[in-house]
């Protein structure tokens, strides 16, 4: 099976006049299987945008290989198979969504009839039928984002590269797009997703890669990346600031809320924690266990 995305020792060095060369990517090797949602995560400056630009052949790597469906990224035959949503899409404000999508569909080499059908289908998929003839300049940020997703879909691509696809969307819009991405995956599409919404990534993605300083830190299923350690969360009545100071010796993360104070620690520290809380007379509200979330794993790996 040919991989939709494969990079091998991908490196990019930017040479700026009068400055030291800056290495944006450092021997990045990833493989994206067919028919999955692949989360590509990293802090700002980690090399995510540079990777996407290389995959789309906007820039060329300094070293290494980047292939789409087994072919070099500059091969026109594979570029036709890709739909792309940039992090900050820009469209001419005077254009209407139907006009914009018609232009993009025409660039894919479709006939007039195919263009009409593709535009109608893309607008329906993102819930934009009623705004088809509204100038983009009159649309909200969230609706404009939906137009961006529609233009990525209009060419019926096998691979979608989406940079922050739910940016600017309200909760209903985010849910709609999440459902759409799952549907596209079930149809056999491959989705390469870069996002800072880690809860969303955890619920959507089959595989997650984390990059830091241009290098791959880890790659695997979300449950593989998250620590298997079970944590103890103890809720007490709100603690006073001086009580919090006295509890700093505990190996616990302390979160203060208006209605409760939450202590999070490993089970091995439970006795010491409960003993200290009893000595301070802090009333217990509830005790529960939880595993590390993807967001917590990301902070541990990429901070």
What does this molecule look like?
It is a single chain. The chain has 303 residues and is an alpha/beta fold. It is built from eleven helices and 14 strands. The strands form three sheets. Strands 6-7-8-3-9-10 form a six-stranded mixed sheet, sandwiched between helices. A four-stranded antiparallel sheet has the order 2-1-4-5, covered by helices on one side. Strands 12-13-11-14 form a four-stranded antiparallel sheet, covered by helices on one side.
Topology of helices and strands:
Elements: E1 5-14, E2 22-32, E3 37-41, H1 48-55, E4 63-68, E5 71-72, H2 76-79, E6 82-85, H3 97-107, H4 112-125, H5 141-153, E7 159-163, H6 171-186, E8 190-194, H7 198-204, E9 207-212, E10 215-220, H8 222-225, E11 230-236, H9 241-246, E12 253-256, E13 261-265, H10 270-280, E14 284-291, H11 294-302
Parallel strand pairs: 3-8, 3-9, 6-7, 7-8
Antiparallel strand pairs: 1-2, 1-4, 4-5, 9-10, 11-13, 11-14, 12-13
Helix pairs in contact: 3-4, 4-5
